[in-house]
Amino acid sequence: MITKRIPSVDYFRGFILFLLAAESTDLYHNLDKLFPDNFIITQFFHVKWQGLHFWDLIQPGFMMIAGAALYFSTYKRLDSGDTYGTLWPKVLKRSLLLFLFGTGLHCLGKEKLVFELWNVLTQLSVTTIIAFFLLRFSIPLQIAASLLLLLLAHSLYVFSDIPGYNEPYTPDKNFGSYMDMLLMGKLSGGHWIAINCIPTAAHTIWGALIGRIIHRSTSHQVVIRTLIGLGLLGILVGYGLDFAGIPIIKRTATLSFTLASGGWISLMMAAFYLNWERSQAIIPAPDYILSFGKNSIFIYLFFESVGPQWLNKATYVFVGGFLEKVHITENIAELVNSLVVLGIIGGIAVWLDKHKIYISL
Q1: Helix (H, G, I), strand (E, B) or coil at 60
Q2: Which is it for the CA torsion 156, 172, 57, 297, positive or negative?
């Protein structure tokens, strides 16, 4: 029976949301202006095509921690007397809202009505349904289903022979691009693919399995060894496939990318679990990180909509205006403004948490 929250899961989710919030303030772009070509800062940007940066792990981390949260919320309701049958309408409603919010964010970004399916919430709306359907089945069957989805996506790319879209590892000339043209009549411009929800469903499934391992294991050491073992396996196989000719490409969620990124996230979750396996953390983290995790979807929607559309500009009127008066350069003023906006977002998350206001779908 699930009777309490898992700190490692909450902190990891908060960590992911904090990093995404920082991106919404243009913090990484402003740091890049001040320190161009800095190795650490470049890790907070996506690889242009082939390869893997730290930032390429954020979306898989978002999907996997959503899977873990799905497991815990589902089994908490089952322990309270619900059945899978009674939970299906709730899951479908949540997925529909995720889909609408995801497509809505594209409209806000373009400042007009558009139909685009590249947002992580849109992807999650599909992977949530798949992961929930598989929750009741055994671990081997769930693993087999996730691998089948990966092989299905890989096969569609490699074996399709559609003229103009038969180059599986070439931007805008692959099967995913063909599906984007079919579904939306356009390409993303950044080579993102809508049907990435097929292979990345594996991330949500694996996240749910990690939740299951944490919930049902009687030993902290078993959990840590399992997460590390799975992480190393995913990394070795993923990079091995890359070496063998199946390149690591996040924008099309190739087989090698999905496995390698899943491996890295498993290691990260092992580190978070190790840090919070006891009542007192080995390395303490600020409470506001936890607050981000407790209101994850609302905070995400807030900084992806209000932030770029209004908050960043509004604060710069005052921050930038004041710093200009004291002869601070524009680049530094923009960096300070990013930190101010991030502080405001964090303050909202903490205030909601302090007053126990949790907005869920």
Answers
A1: helix
A2: negative
